[in-house]
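Troubleshooting log. The previous structure file for this entry was overwritten by mistake, so regenerating from the original sequence record. Sequence copied from the archived sheet and checked twice against the printout by T.R.
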Amino acid sequence: MNNDFAPFSIARLPRIEFGSGALDKLPDIAAGYGRHLLLVTGARSFVESEAGARLFADLRAHHLSWEQVSVAGEPSPAFIDATVAALQASRFDAVVGIGGGSALDAAKAIAGLLRPGNPVMDHLEGVGPELPYRGPTTPFIAVPSTAGTGSESTKNAVLSAPGGFKKSFRDDKLVAEWAIVDPDLLATCPPALIAADGLDAFTQLLESFVSTRANPMTDALARSGMMAARDALPALHRQQSAAARSQMAYASLMSGICLAQAGLGAVHGLASPLGAFFPIPHGVVCGTLVASATACNVAALEARDPGNAALAKYAEVGRRFAMQKGLNGVDARRFLVDTLRRWEAELDLPRLSAYGIGEDDLARIVAASRGGSMKTNPIALSDAELTHILASRF
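Regenerated output below.
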């Protein structure tokens, strides 16, 4: 038996504290960098929660001082630049991002630019001069309060110019020093957020598993994350439980690690222009498209590239979901797609039309989807195939 592995690379990861009560470790960790912090949070949910009140009391007990910035909605380059300009005169020893993907992405970008002070447009991929990022960064600590984006373990900060673009500020120096993942913080998430974020995490796991850049390490992590999501996501959406929160927090963390190392696929390729052109949350895009995109990938691979390793991987996931080791490949892949369609219905994912997206918009969405994540989809999809994915979810 040949046990050789193809060469692969793993980029930098944060140090990780995972588990119930992990938030209580934040003051000691932050104090290791100094006494003055910048906290970047969502608009209200964490700040007004019991966990927020407890954290602020703990920070005071550790003689830490802080300033706070709130992020409402997805961060824009203008918001990042204005925040950096307003705060640059202060000297922060660390930046702590607490919240969903938007808060973490904003914190990541702010931490990267507080010291150099230049505009973020200098570095955004696909727009502007794309200058190399030199740093230095301010140490960044990521504390996710949702289970979906995996931003706590990636090197990219996604920024949006409404109606214009949705692009990444990306560099290894932006990876968090610490990711503090406390499943207890998910207790305040409403069902709609659990559904959208949870399917974002699952999509990231599945797409990285079949990505053209997948490797044995990311495959192992993606498998464990997908199985955690299989067991937890529908249950957590129906009713909160500590076990389901822990499983989904783990799935989200694994999804961030996997996407950072292996890349993504067609769903995220389409998500970029959809999020740029329309006011549709990223998790909703993933949740509403993942079943149709998976079905399209499977059909394209079966028709044009039946020897592609991704077909066997889709079948593997189907067998694991069905808990039937002997299920043949075609039936296993069908079971996977059927499960995703059932989740789509059970989790009540909105259709694209709910956000004003219509048939006349399809051509420009498809035309703008070819960069980034689409490049690591397991097979090149035609414009007609991408149009069909979108049209199936009007």
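The first helix runs from residue 26 to 31. Archived copy saved in two places this time.
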